Amino acid sequence: MGKQNESSFHGLHSEWKSWRKLLVLLCILGGLAVGSIRFPLNFDGKDRVSDSCEGELVRHFNVSKSQLHALASLYSDSEKIASLECTKELGPGPSTTDRISCAMKLMCSKKQELMDEDETALQNSISDASSALVSMLVDNTLQTSATVVYAYASGMMERCWWMQASKEFPSVVYGYVFGTMKRCWWILAGVGCLCLSVNLIPLTTWWKKQFLTVFFCGGIALSFYTFWSGSREFHSRREETLASMCDERARMLQDQFNVSMNHVHALAILVSTFHHGKNPSAIDQKTFGEYAERTSFERPLTSGVAYALKVVHSEREQFEKQHGWRIKKMESDDQALVQDCIPEKLDPAPVQDEYAPVIFSQESVAHIVSIDMMSGKEDRENILRARASGKGVLTSPFKLLKSNNLGVVLTFAVYNVPLSPHATSEQRIEATVGYLGASYDVPSLVEKLLHQLASRQTIVVNVYDTTNASAPILMYGTDVAEDMSLFRASNLDFGDPMRKHEMHCRFKQKPPEPTSAIDSSTVILAIVLLVSYICNAAINKIEKVEEEFREMTQLKVRAEAADVAKSQFLATVSHEIRTPMNGVLGMLQMLMDTELNDKQIDYAETAHRSGTELISLINEVLDHAKIESGRLELEAVPFELRPVLDNVFSLFSGKSSEKGIELAIYVSDQVPQVVIGDPGRFRQIITNLVGNSVKFTHDKGHIFVSVHLADEVTISPVEVQDPVLKLSFGLAQDTSSKPYNTLSGSLVVNRWKSWEHFKILDRVDIGDSSTIRLLVTVEDTGVGIPVDAQSRIFTPFMQADSSTSRMYGGTGIGLSISKRLVDLMGGEIGFVSECDVGSTFSFTVCLRKGELSSLDAKGQHCDATPVEFRGSKALVIDQKCIRAEVTRYHLERLGISVHIASTLKAACCFLSGGVTSGASAPVGLSMILIDKDVWDEEKDVSVHRFLRDPSGNGIVEFEADLPKIILLATAIAPDERHELKLAGLIDDVLMKPLRLGGLMVCLQEALGSGKKSRVRRKKPTNLQNLLRGKHILVVDDNVVNRRVAQGALERYGAIVTCVCSGRAAVELLEPPHKFDACFMDRHMPEMDGFEATRHIRARETQINEQLASGEVSIEKYGNKPCWHTPIMAITADVIQATSEECRKCGMDDFVAKPFKEEQLYNAVARFFESSGQSG
Amino acid sequence: MDVLSQLRHQLADYTNSLHRDGFLDDQFSQLQQLQDESSPDFAMEVVSLFFEDCQKLVTNMARALELQAVDFKQVDSSVHQLKGSSSSVGAARIKNLCVAFKTCCDSQNRDGCMRCLQEVNRECVLLKNKLQTLFRLEQQIISAGGSIPM
Predict the structure, then answer these.
(1) A1041 touches B: beta carbon within 8 Å
(2) H helices present in A117-204, as ranges
(3) Within chain A, which residues score under 50 in pLDDT?
(4) What is the pLDDT of residue A552?
């Protein structure tokens, strides 16, 4: 059962352990999970910031959510995070917030208006408004706020165009976030699986490792995938950003160009209206120049405008005459507007079909007046195309001399009549009267545009004329760009279908490292590595622990097997040793019976004694082995406690008186007379303890055994009723008085301490009232146990130290056996010991209360307490209270009432007082028991004499009536004893230890010799009474033995039948039969005694069962309800094994061969006493 | 000193010598104590039974030991019987002999057994003579009108 407990405990333990492990792992994983979730979220702080901003904005400015989303996306899109963060930082400051909110509100209201207006107006107003705001905020020196607001304003503009694109952005952001989250969940799921596989699922280590490897590889792959997808997203976003920025810029440029073109167109219409429509013309060079100069703010990008008239060759002369100058030719083909040359130096234009001399020009380009535009190749083409299409056409870019920038010339045809939009080119050519040209400075145009936009530093913008696809002409920008990887081309439509322009955008810097992708993948990698490492370590640890556990289990099994084998070996061997030892002892016994000289007898006796000791030692070992292997079973028979203790003491009385140690026994009157338990084992425990005490106590002091109920000491010591307990407690309280108030006057240890650790005493009640708990205390004044040895004295074969065994002998197994026996009896054992003071051992046992009658019925009642002393009175003179109490206990067992006097003087007072007052006490006093110590102390013989003759008259009236004086002594020299007796001072000497039997005999002798002889005669008479008329069967194959047995039994009046074989006995003992008992020899040919007994018992059991079930009538079997013929073995060897064997096969007892009267009596008395008494 | 006391003295001496020489032990005294008015010749009866038994057993053993293949088991059981009987009557020397005899049997020592058997035979005869003398003395005492002290 212990083993089972152990395993279940182990199971529980390991289960708990695994749970704890799991818990720790979960904690770690939880931490990791939280970290990994938080980390990516922090990565997406951008989005969070925009979210929080969004909330704030919604609260503060009542802006619709979709607008804000668009706005936010624009911010993040165009990498205006810094500005946004500024907003956030500035958030808490109330003044700034107000200012920004004011600006915002303004913007919002503006925006509302703008919705209805057309694009151009919108752009203007926003530009104005933003510039106004900027100036206002700059005044307030709030540079950051200004930047923010400006950025916002630009954002608003962008928003108008990029609503669609930006609407898509949040979903992209969310997608990214969810993607990251999803990866986290993947990791968590993987970790979970791993945990399960490591801890819960009973997989083999190999599988766990496979799982781990898969997890590890998966984790690494996931990490790389995260990096790859993250960087891809990063790149695509960058690309998108570039595209949107490029497109945005292209469109702006285009629009600005268009606006400017419209103005030129308007100017053309103006010329047509006021120059050609009026006659005479309302415009001359001066008017035109002034007007053009004053409206140049409308065309901020044109360097100048000029008007050329269409002049056919036939009208040339007239024209020249009219204007007073010659039409001049352009100097070179590719330089249309030559500003630095002087027109007068130019050659007149060669003869052509048609000319286009400039008549009006802006003042800035006044030098080109009179130059024939048709003479330049580019301009000619331009003019031709313009008049044919009716739209503005552009030249290919060329270098403007003045600014040294590349420029283009825009040409509009001026018609004299309004033309329908569907007019043919011939009609248009026909209606053409002149051409209005404007030169555009492309680089400054683009420069200006880019200047309006933030983040112009981040991208490089190039504008190309790609009319000739194979050789694009660079109009603006440089080729220098660090990052060539990303490229975006946006088409520009300047209203001229013939010309194609493109804007190329690149990032200035190389792309930054995709940190978010690197970070998240690193985190994932770290988690994976960490988790893998932990799991790997855990798996290895588990493997190791499991391996160790397996080893331990094996070792445990082996150890247990070895232990069992050891116990079995011990049991077997000690049993086997006993058999030959019995032979040795028997032979020695026989040897001693032969003729030997004194020396030989001494040798033989020594050998025999040693053999006996060896046998007892072997018995002890056997006991120990039996207990260890769990084969010892306790009996539960009723027995008398006090005689058992008396018996133990009779064993040690010789030894103790040799050593001069006082032995005393005391049993509390609370202890019932008869208890149910195992008397043999109970006796063994006490014998062990007392034996130890005797062994370790030298020449002085005492050994005191007391038996109490455990309940007597559970109450507080003050309330203790029992005198011995009370005295010992008082002693413990006061150790100063000398000589000590103990049995012998020597110092003893405090016995109360020896049981203070007992758990059983704390238990209030076991519930069953028939259960009693005995507390037995053995107190000695021996050498004590050294403190360092106290912990191991209950360990088998362990003595206080190895020198002990040399000095005192013994194996040290006794205490171990005692402890185990006490454990078996449901008790506890404890002790307290001090060196040179002594030891006190206490133990408790659980027994059941027995009835006196149950004892009688079993026929084990050996000595009935004689009634002859009942009612007598005794005076005990002893200075030691405890000793006096012990004496009182023994006397009271005999029914004698006791008075105690502590000194002789007190006794004299008591006696004389009784005489003078005539009180009844001294009159009825039948004995005085004086301790020898008291006797020796009082040297005055007169006192001694006074006791003998209290009346002092010297006349011995009736000797028989006088109280008998008995001296109690531990050791007394025979001479002294004789002397005292002769002097007539005492009647007898009673040797201690006091025992009921000894006391009884002594008192009987002292009180009347006649009784003594009667007692002695009692037994044979009893035997005769017992056996008279009994039918006894003697079974023996040996005729001589048979005859002797017959003779012996017949002498006591038995009717003896003899048979010579077991078979005959079985036949004769077939119920119903007349025999009351059967003596059976063990060894018989054909059927030996054991077998015969087995047959007989089997038959009896069969018949008893039949009787019990009513199958056969009881009359048929002699009216006996239960058949059990006492069968006693007759055997020559009386070793223990035989008696065990006898009982085993159903025999009741055994008698040694040849018959001895006393033994025979004892054997048969058990069976016949009760019936004999009743009959 | 009358004849009776003389005889008694003689008997006591003789009994003592028998005990002293180890022919008899306490058991024989016990046996003697068992005889009373109802069975006055109990001891003699038992002793004669013993000798009959002895004779029979000795013959058995002698026959067994003469055979080629000695059945030591049978001899052993006879020795056991003899030992039991001898201890019952208190024939101490025969009993002790039987112990030695048994050892010889256990070791299957044929020569030892033969020797023991002869010794047992001799002892039996010896004891028979001694006891006959003893009983004769007792008879004499009884016939002289005395009783045998116990």
Answers:
(1) yes
(2) 119-139, 143-195
(3) 1-12, 37-65, 67-72, 74-123, 125-126, 129-130, 132-153, 155-169, 333-341, 856-864, 915-921, 954-960, 1009-1020, 1170-1175
(4) 94
Minimal Cβ distance to B84: which of A594, A1038, A1047: A1038
Owning domain of residue A1162: 1021-1174
Residues of A in contact with B99 (CB under 8 A): 587, 590
pLDDT at A994: 77
Q: How far apart are CA A485 and CA A234, in angstroms?
A: 14
Question: From its phi and psi, is residue A747 left (phi > 0), alpha (psi between -120 and 50) or beta?
Answer: beta
The CA-based dihedral angle spanning residues A364, A366, A371, A376, taken in that order and rounded to the nearest 10 degrees = 0
Q: Which residue of B has its CA nearest to A1082?
A: B84
Nearest CB to A1038: which of B42, B81, B96?
A: B81
Residue of chain B whose Cα is closest to the Cα of A1051: B34
- For A1040, which of B35, B46, B77 is closest by C-beta distance? B46
Question: Which residues from chain B sit within 8 angstroms of residue A1037, using beta carbons?
Answer: 81
Residue with tokens 């010749």: B41
The pLDDT value given to residue A550: 93
Q: If you measure CA to CA, which chain A residue comes closest to B31?
A: A1044
Locate A939 and state its tokens.
Answer: 């040297």
User: Which pLDDT does position A450 carry in this prediction?
Assistant: 76
Report the complex ipTM.
Answer: 0.80
A267-to-A121, A272, A292, A369, A956 alpha-carbon distances in Å: 19, 8, 8, 17, 180
CB A396 within 8 A of CB A465: yes
The SS3 of residue A358 is: strand
> Domain end: A830, A846, A862, which one?
A862
Residue after which a domain boundary falls, among A847, A862, A877: A862
**For residue A267, what are the contacts with CB-CB under 8 A and spacing of at least 6?**
A292, A295, A305, A436, A438
From the list A38, A40, A43, A68, the residue with the least C-alpha distance to A53 is A68
Position A1059 scores a pLDDT of 86
Same domain, A960 and A1035: no
**Distance of alpha carbon A354 from alpha carbon A375, whole angstroms:** 10
Question: Can you give the pLDDT at residue A1173?
Answer: 39
A824 and A685 within one domain:
yes
Closest CA to A694 of A767, A781, A789: A781
Judge if A857 and A919 occupy the same domain: no
Does A413 fall in a domain?
yes
Report the relative pairing of strands A829-834 and A838-849 from DSSP bridges.
antiparallel
pLDDT value of position A556: 92
Same domain for A850 and A868: no
pLDDT digits (tens, 9 = 90+) for A412-452: 888 877 777 787 888 888 888 888 888 877 777 777 777 77
Shortest CA distance from B49: residue in chain A: A1040
pTM of the prediction? 0.43
Provide the number of structural domains found in chain A: 5
Q: Which of these, A877, A875, A970, lies nearest to A922 by C-alpha position? A: A875
Q: How far apart are the CA of B1 and the nearest CA of chain A, in angstroms?
A: 34
Q: Is residue A603 one of the residues assigned to a domain?
A: no
- B107-129 pLDDT, tens digit per residue, is 888 888 888 888 888 888 888 88
Q: CB distance A1040–B30 less than 8 Å?
A: no
CA distance B32 to chain A (A): 10
Give the residue with greater pLDDT, B13 vs A183. Answer: B13
Residues A1111, A1139 within the same domain: yes
